[in-house]
Structures are given as structure tokens and as C-alpha cells.
Amino acid sequence: MSYRLGVDVGGTFTDVLLVEEATGATWRAKTPSTPADQSVGVRSGIGKVCADAGIGLHEVAQVLHGTTVATNAILEGKGAKVGLVTTRGFRQVLQIARSYVPGGLAGWIIWPKPEPLAALENTVEVDERIASDGTVIRELDEADVRAQLGRLRGRGIRALAVSLINSFAGAAHERRIAELAAEELPGVPVSLSSDVLPELREYERTVTTVANGYVQPQVKHYIETLAGELGKSGVAGELAILRSDGGLSTADAAVASPVTMLLSGPAGGVTGAVWVAEQCGYRDLITFDMGGTSTDVALVQDLSPRIGRETKVGDLTVRASSVDVRTVGAGGGSIAHVPELTRALRVGPQSAGADPGPAAYGRGGTEPTVTDANVVLGNLPPALAGGEITLDVAAARDAVEKIAEAMGLPDAETAAAGIVDIVNENMLGGLRLVSVQQGFDPRDFALVAFGGAGPLHANALGRLTGAWPVIVPPSPGVLCALGDATTSLRDVAARTVLRRFADLTGDELGAILRELADEAGERLAAQGLAKDAQEVGFEVDVRYHGQGFEIPVEVDRAWLDGPGTALEALASRFDAEHDRLFSFLLSVDHELVNARATVTGPRPEVAPLTLPEGTGDPADALVDTHPIHVSGARHDARVYDRAKLRAGDVVTGPAIVTEMDSTTLVLPGHAATVHPSGSLLINPLEA
């Protein structure tokens, strides 16, 4: 038998999913995350799930891992001290940055400008200059380079970033600096902008390269430690890391370019949601991943997640492809509070996390959280995770009553309903960011809800957005781990072209894209992916000549094979997207800015789960009744064991469906139909 193991590390829990490829059978484990050393929780979860499946660790063929190590290094400011080498005259490139201040017109008054990841005192200039067409204007002064690197050696830097002006057009000087750095700064990892982001715009290229160096030592230590510990424990399979764009990198490739994995964790959930939606027959969907600390949302069209050209983590924005995920500081552990100044109820972004966690977990937490509110409302039965977790209802009520007292509300149920309503509205804002504000009507999409807390709020979010059906996959609490286990190797090659269409031919465009495909394909071949198993996709950034911004446009490979049609088809598609986004077109010539080739491996063959046919009546799965409070009224909700539901069974609300890693709430006036693949499809009942 062949087994794949997906691992996802969240802020509260580490999820592990073991998949037997031939049958689609799965085993899952959920263990508390260990922020001090994430590998401890990972190893614990892997050992637990393999024991549950009755297999040895040596039988695991691959460990596919979505990690937040790089993300946390930036959010917590715990990355390496980075030295930066620039062309003379460009030392303050990170300080000047871009003239964008978040917030309203007066946002600059209260906005604390974030400090660059490479301090000015750790930034040096070297004598050299390359023109934008790649010609050398001034040769590199190697004696000067050695002197400047010596200054950085005295500053105790642990990573070096090299970003010279126009290095996207010619990388020779950067590569020579890397050779000199190996002599002057032995053991210090070097990130070159011509490798990390070979595109124009010196600020974006520099900040991305510096970010790569900032997280690299920590990522390297984590991955090498985890790989070593897995090897010692008997895991024979290779370790692969999920990229921000939903693809996989080998462990070595991830260490070399960690900036590509800043959104590694959320990308796994989107990949898993696409896999689940496809089994249910839906191709357009919005993903809704609610965990203990935050909620991640993304939009998918025709089973293809929207890929953005920027990755944003905290105050940092880098130019790296990633699934267009928006994060809201709202989760099951989000703390409710009433500020003295406004006396208005607030929920989050502070979280109780894994330790001590919500008051209901009985680990010493006393602050009222969203989980506690759900316990008070009856949405969460007293036992979770198949009986492994027993909730402290009295502690949850005591915590929520603090909110009732602070706001002068009559009882804990009223306060709890307010907490849940506010967190739902917070998450609705995130869903609108990826739908309405991008020009999409959420009513045209299904809503796939997962994460430990997602299915509990999914029905309410479906009602707020009008997105139906709400799809709750099997094992929703570990869907990110399923996404990790069902994704494939990926690499991207990019180049700045900067040519007007009038000065470009379709054959030249095709030659550029094929060169990039060969470049990315060679890297994947070195990682063990045969050329004949590789799939290639092309994308270019286009703008009207004279514009200062561009729009990414997918290139159909068929355009490159037709006689002289590529540029016309590309211009037409760009015009359509420009009109959709801005409602106007220009009559000037188009301009090609950047070209990219994405090469991926085949998606792993994992057999989908197929449930036996049921009668439509879920009576055999009924285990209890439990009072819940909805819209100020008390209802008796039927409680079902999800493991006993069969295909075609219809669960009519009010109802609670329990399983090991999550709980699904079906509201009055709605019904959940069990799909043969195991997902619950929630829809409003017809009036």
C-alpha cells in the first residue's frame, strides 16, 4: 500500500491526515500546536495518525507539509539580521519604498511606518551599473565589494541580500558578489534578486529579496531539523513543503526560496476545498477556513484559485505569487471584550490560542471567546472530537456572563448571540473582499466551509452571502492537511520583457515563454519530476502603453501555435479584463511587461471516498437532542453522528452534526443533504 501524509500547522492545532492512495481511506489526528518548536507537534501528530492506521512510519511515501514558520518569523519580528548590498546611489531603496499609506485621507497621522527588514546601517553600496537593456555601464569594483562586505561582517549579519539596479536585465554582477560573499562571509546564506524576482521595479525586487533572506535561516533550521527527526523516527518518505501558490517544493527548494512559502498554510486549505468541490460537481466556489485564531477566505473560478502577484503578511507586502487569500482576525478562540471608552462589544483580533484556550476547554482560560459563546448557545455539545474533549459548560457561561454584565444584557444567551453575530459579520467582510469588491456576485458561487470552527458558522454565512450550497467536507478540521496531501510539485520562471505589441511578434512571445518553461522545467526535473510528466501554463503582465500598472493575463497555449494570432488574442483578453475592472478601454498600443511560465507535476491520484447509499432518513445516525438558541428562541436540535450518515440522507435543521474534528450547525429552515463523496450540502428549505 502507498500512503501520503498531509500536515498543516495552525495557530492553535496541528492537523495530520494520512491517505491511502489506492482506496482513498483516511486517518486523521489533531494535536495542539507547539509554537516554540512546531516540529514537536508535527512529529506527535504523525506518530499518532500512523498508530491509528496500524502502519509503520516507514510505510509513509511522502510527507507534504504546509507550514507557518516563515509567516510567523515576519509577524513576530524574529527573522535573521539581514545585510543588503545595493548599487551606489540606491542605499535607501527600502526607506523610500512606495508612497502608499493605508487608511483614509488622514491615515498618515496615526500610521506607524513599519521598519524595513534590512536596517539602513546594515545596507551598503557598491560601485557598478547595468543598463535596463543588460549592457554594462560601469564594471563591478571587486575591491570595493570586499571592503563593503567586511563592514557587514563586523555588524554580525546572519543573511545577505543582493539587489542591484537593473539586475533583472543582467545578473553577472550579482552572481560575482555572491562568489565574493562566500569568501568574505563564509556560512552566511545569500539571496540574489536576479534569482528571487528577476523583474523590474527595484523596490519590489529588493523588499522581496530581503524578505527571502530574513526568513531563510529560520526556515532552513526548521526544515532540516524536521527532516532529520522524521528520518530518525523511521519515516522513509521525502519531505515536501507547500508553496503560497498552492504547489509543492522539495525541502531543498523551499530552503533556497522561502519567500515563496509565506502563505503556505492557507494555500493548502484552498487546494483541499477545490478537490472536495470537484467531487460534489461544483466548479465555482468561495473557500471559508475558520480556525482557532483566524479565518482565511479565497475565491475559485472553474476549479482554479485566483493567484495574486503579491503576498501580504502583516505590514509586509512582497512580490511573490500566492493564492489570493484574505485573512480576518476572527476564529473560535477570538476573545470578546467591551472597551471602557465605547462600551461597544468587540470580538478579536486577540485570541486565546492553544494555551490556555477558550474557557470551555478547562485549561485555565477565563476570557470569553467565540467558542464559549457557541457553548452557551448550545451550538457545541458538551463533548467534542469523538469524546476526547469534554467542554466545561459552566466555565464558558461564567466567561460570557462578563460580557452580559458589562453591557447590561439580561442573560448569557443574549451576550453569546451578540458575540456570534459580530464574528459572523467580521467574516462576511472578508468574504466580500474576495467576491463583491473583486466584481463577483457571491450568489454565483458555492461556499466551502472547513477548519475546526468553519462548519459551525457556515450556515449563517451562507444566509448572509446568498452563496449556496454550503459544502462541509468530510474531516473539515483537517482539510488543509488534505490539500497538502493532494497537491503537486510546481515551479515558476519569470522575466521582464517591456516591449510594445507593435515591436513584438507572436513568434517572439512564444519563444520567450518556451524558454521560461524550459528553465522552470529543468529545476523540477532536478527535483525528480520527469519532463514528460510536466504540465505548463503561461501568464503575462500587460498594460496600455503609458500606464504605470499592469494586469496579469493568462495565455492560452493554442494562441502560440496559430499563425500571428497570439498578440491579437492577448490584447482582446486584456481589454476584456480591463473593462471588467475599470469600465473603460484606451485606444493606445498594448505593452508586455513581464512573462511567466508555471510548470506543475500531475495531481496525485487519491481515490475519493464513496459512502454507501442511504434511505434519505438519517434516523440511524441520531444520537441525542440538545437545546440551542437561535434568533432569541429556544429550539430542540437533533444531534447526529456524521460517521453513521449515508449518501442521500437529509438532515433537517435545527440539527447538529458531530465528528472527531469539527461540528456542523444546520439552522432552522435549512437542510443538509449527504453527498456520496461524504460532504454535507446545506441549502435553504423551499418556502
Automatic annotation (TrEMBL):
Domain Hydantoinase A/oxoprolinase, first and last residues per copy: 205-489
Hydantoinase/oxoprolinase N-terminal domain boundaries: 4-184
Family annotation (InterPro entries): ACX-like_C, ATPase_NBD, Hydant_A_N, Hydantoinase_A, Oxoprolinase-like
Limits of the Acetophenone carboxylase-like C-terminal domain: 507-673
Coiled coil: none
Domain of life the protein comes from: Bacteria
PANTHER family found in the cross-reference section: 5-OXOPROLINASE RELATED (PTHR11365), HYPOTHETICAL 5-OXOPROLINASE (EUROFUNG)-RELATED (PTHR11365:SF23)
Protein name: Hydantoinase/oxoprolinase family protein
High-level lineage: Bacteria, Bacillati, Actinomycetota, Actinomycetes, Pseudonocardiales
